[in-house]
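Dissemination and training. As part of the outreach component of the grant, students in the summer workshop were shown how a complex can be specified as a set of sequence lines and then modelled as a single object. The example used during the hands-on session is reproduced here so that future cohorts can follow it. Participants entered these lines:
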Amino acid sequence: MHELSIVASLFEILEEKAREQKAARVVRVSLKVGKLAGVVPEFLQTAFDSYKRDTIAAEAALEVTLVPLRVKCRKCRAVTEKDDFVFTCSACGSTELEVLEGTELLLDKLDLEV
Amino acid sequence: MSKKEVVVREDILGSNKKVAAEIRERMEKSGVLVVNLLSSPGSGKTTLLERIIETLKPTHPLAVIEGDIETERDAERIRRKGVPAWQITTGGACHLEAKMIGRLIPEIPAETKFLFIENVGNLVCPASYDLGESLRCVLLSAPEGDDKPKKYPKAFASADCLIFTKSDLIPFLPFDLERAGNEALDINPRLRVFVTSALKGRGVAELARYFIESRVNMIQHQRHA
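and obtained this result:
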């Protein structure tokens, strides 16, 4: 359950951006969470709802977009999606894979009232 | 009042990663190999570390940072081995973060060759936090069961090495070492795998050698960089 720590880091960025933009309120917070980011979206939601009280984002909605784990094979160049965390190329069996996406934990967008 | 959409695209753990990168650069330049040990509680991190210390200490000065939710116990155990050790008590938090390590870096003695960080016992949360280590080791003890790699993929995917512990218990348990090893290698084909028993001393010399080789590689890499 490190989602509360993650939400605390999220708020550091969020509050700085809101200040820069001279926002009155944050209306929506959009995250991109990779399948292999190591966080549970439901827990992020719970942590967000308890953390946001008395902040500039007190009324904000949290939107989490899940990003599948996509890899590219260095041997045959095939790009595949991995559901099973087996890091071998589904096309040629090589283990030399490059992760394209699916490990990220991003604050993607903020909807503000200014 | 008007509405405005701001594209941020910022890594939420970016500030942790930045501190971790600073620690790594500083430690690698000083010739200190930082090892982050990750595992469930009770998998035998501290006991294995005691054996590693006995093997490395005569030739390689080392230091230890212990992470726990409460108590100074683990750091005391390490100090009894004559090794400088710092205890971080997180007071409830389930993982260590880079800034907690960063605060202790100035206290590390100059002659140190290895800094071992024993993370809070937890196979989930510590996996998301880079501590500035050059080597991440995940431990799996035989009593935990051979099905753990697939259940906790992040920890195994992010590690450089997998250390099976308490291997002396395998004959008494329905633990399939090959299955566990293969599952972990499915997730992370680059993993170096070691089978150890701190009680019997099995695998400790091989593991110590791996740490020494990793440090030599780190220093050579520094020279070429």
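The CA atoms of residues 62 and 105 of chain A lie 14 Å apart. Students were then asked to discuss how this feature might be tested experimentally.
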